[in-house]
Amino acid sequence: MAKFTAARLQEILARHQPAPQTFVETGTWIGNSTRLALGAFQKVHTIELSEALFKEHSPGLEAKGAICHHGDTRIELPKLAESIAEPVFWFLDAHWTDQCAGAVFGPLPLFDELQRLSERTYPDVICVDDVHSFISHRAAALKERPARAKLFAENPDWNRVDLPRIASYFPGHREAIIIGDQAVVYR
Ligand SMILES: C[S@@+](CC[C@H](N)C(=O)[O-])C[C@H]1O[C@@H](n2cnc3c(N)ncnc32)[C@H](O)[C@@H]1O
Question: Which of 49, 103, 120, 156 has the lowest CB atom count within 10 Å?
């Protein structure tokens, strides 16, 4: 998991104005990016599949103003995509990394998320985190990391994430760019 900083978030937001006022994150984990978003957006939602992580971290995050959802992003994200009638910054981070203790690892939800978001008509920003974990790690690090190689082999979707594919869900987008470890599409 690469570090997503306040400076990086501001860099991404500054490229196209006005920036969305609402942030939706998939994959809360311990709430690092949720807390960061609380300093930059009027409304912050976050979705976590792990019941243990949700129970441990949602009280503190909600006390700071976040709206925490427990469940699978493939079920929870469509509800938010339907109900939020304004531009949203979607931070798609519900994927496995070996640096997130307690994280649930299952089928990659990213393509379902992108499909649902493609049906929205707002000038959203779609930000996929850890894009180099998908792109370069699998080539370089796999050799040294047999456990990760096995997971990639068993989950072929993880081998099919790159910027052109992410951007292809959003024809006519304003811009698609990799900034640091984030793949960003501006609709
Ligand atoms: C990379 S971590 C998120 C890191 C966090 N956004 C941060 O920056 O601090 C991925 C998280 O997604 C969760 N997750 C995995 N699959 C999920 C799914 N289908 N729905 C919701 N959360 C999921 C994992 O349990 C894990 O906590």
Answer: 156
Sheet containing 67-70, strands listed edge to edge, beginning at the edge strand earlier in sequence: 67-70, 43-48, 22-26, 88-92, 125-128, 182-186, 175-179
Domain harbouring 147, CATH code: 3.40.50.150
DSSP single-letter state for residue 92 = E
Shortest-distance Cα residue to atom 17 of ligand 1: 94
* 184 within 8 A of 12, measured Cβ to Cβ: yes
Task: Give the end-to-end CA distance of the chain in Å, rounded to a whole number.
Answer: 25
- Pocket-forming residues, ligand 1, beta carbon under 6 Å: 1, 4, 25-27, 29-30, 32-33, 47-50, 53, 72-74, 93-95, 97, 100, 103-104, 106, 109
Task: Determine the structural domain holding residue 22 and report its residue range.
Answer: 6-186
Across the 187 residues of the chain, what is the mean pLDDT of every consecutive 10-residue run? 85 97 97 97 97 97 98 97 98 82 83 97 96 64 65 73 94 96 96
Mutate to test the pocket of ligand 1, among 1, 9, 29 (most ligand atoms within 8 A of CB): 29
